[in-house]
Amino acid sequence: MATASAASSFLVPATAIAPTPSACPSTVPKNKKNAAGRRRRTLQCRASGRRGDDEDSRLLWLPRREVLTGLGGVAASFVGYPDLASIALEANPVESCRRGEKVTEKLVECSDPNRDFPCPPASRVPIVDFTPEARVTRVRRPAHLLDPEYQEKYKEAVGKMRALDGSNPLSFAAQAAVHQSYCDGHYRLDPTEKNRPFDVHFSWIFAPWHRMYIYFYERALGQLIGDDTFALPYWNWDAPAGMGIPAIFKQGVSTADNPLYDPYRNMENMDALLDLDYLKKPRRDTIPFEPPTDPAARAKYDDAVQTNLCTIYLQQVRDGKGPRAFLGEKLCSESSFRVKEINERSKRRQADGQSSKVSPSKSQSQGTLERMAHTTVHVWTGRANPATCSAEQGGVVGHDGKPHCQVDMGFLGTAGRDPLFYSHHANVDRMWHIWSTRLGGKGFDDPEWLDTSFVFYDDYRSPRLVRMKFRDVLDATRLGYTYDKESEAALPWLNSKPTRFSGGGKAKAKAAPKVASEFPLTLTDEAVDVPAVAVPARQAGKDLVLLIEGIEYDPQINNKFDVVINVAREDAARVGPKDSEYAGSFSAVPSSNAAGGTLVGKFTLALDGVLADLGLAGASAVDIVLVPHTEGEIKLYLPPTIENA
Model's pTM, two decimal places? Predict the structure, then answer.
């Protein structure tokens, strides 16, 4: 059921943003009053030092700034890099943002305004509206099952895309830059007043934006080899036979040998079985992709495969019911969350004998499609962080001015530089397709979601801008592609339902009242008990959700914490996706943050499924254990609450 009031907004920097030296030379005047009329020019700036044979693909593309224009009353438009992509986004109704405020036209800047990045010129290419394709001409198939002829065709297409000049918006460098600019903090909303980052992750924008993005990528590949039936192969990581990096991406030792190769992957995982619980600490030993014959080793292998299948089951079935749970919460152009404000208001309420709960922060909240397998596959594939990181070691300098070595797939700013990224997202898209078709999932019916639009370039020979709305992409066949029938007929995860944890205490129908843990609290290495969290009576037409607001974390490192229901704290670390008591996890793909610092967001989990599995549908309270798996620390400003949504 669509939930019009569910809202999500841009991640809120928790620390003050101070100007830092740009990684690129600047020619932009600092006078903001003259910003709208200043001369803009295109710049390609190398983001790092020596990068070997991949040098041409390591360009840091910087987007431009633009003044927002009205779209039918209460609206806001975000205009992106003219040679990459642009976006028009209708803002949410005032009631779903912050009471008493009107959402008016905003200023968006596609580079960090505190860094004085130069801005390229505005585009004069006319925009045309998307026209649905007349028929399905492309069938996407698993990358590990491609025949030799199709493998060569795929390599040829990506090779030709890599060979295009970087100024061509359909070049491989430019396509990678689209993701970089939209997904690593280069967009700013209203930099003069609010200075909010804008990102296509962390909300209901995630799935349709990425569908549009890889649609045009796929079309460009087909055009480059003169084959309009060419379909982007997908990484079939939801089936045991596909739970490893497909061989086609591993051949060769450089992009000259194989255009699908990327040297900035985690080499320890190149021939390993995928681990969809990879962010858990302590980390599971690496298991070879090929099934072992030794009985003990085979038992570990089968256990790892079952963990992966249960993860997909939770993502797609138990915990992904409804658009809010599966696709993420509504994007809101206004965020009411402030760490200091939350602290002060919580203390005042406690002093007055009231509940410490405050009004929703409307900060980040991902759906299961984004925060589960998608996030883990990114981190598992990306290069592991060395003990020290520098540009000379292959690090990419982000717009925070610091080198990042957990690249390419392991870092949002560089993910699009690995060809495997696009096949990964083809399978993420397939997960949405299966949810919408075979599983009967239905997207939001809110006009602000359906009419959200982005503009991408099409046709590498004579680039033109095409505007697409979310309502245009809800059915993949309108985009001229579908997925192979064979893989949809056999979904091994569909019946991989978790079972009760055998090592912990019994689930309780009711939990006795206890004193709650004190907040704020910091998660580092030890699990934290939050006993007797009240469960309200379920209201008709609504779902029970667990809400955790005020999550402060360092976005540049791996962060995760699990939520476990009614298990003793000493046992909770052993609970995972195979166990019914596992409710879900907070996690995010690492990214940079302007001038460093932390981000603050929120986390929601659908609870009806886990409560039903534990026989707790009528419980008045449950015990929650938070199990951290972080390389640093995660601070929680407010205790978990359970609500009807």
Answer: 0.82
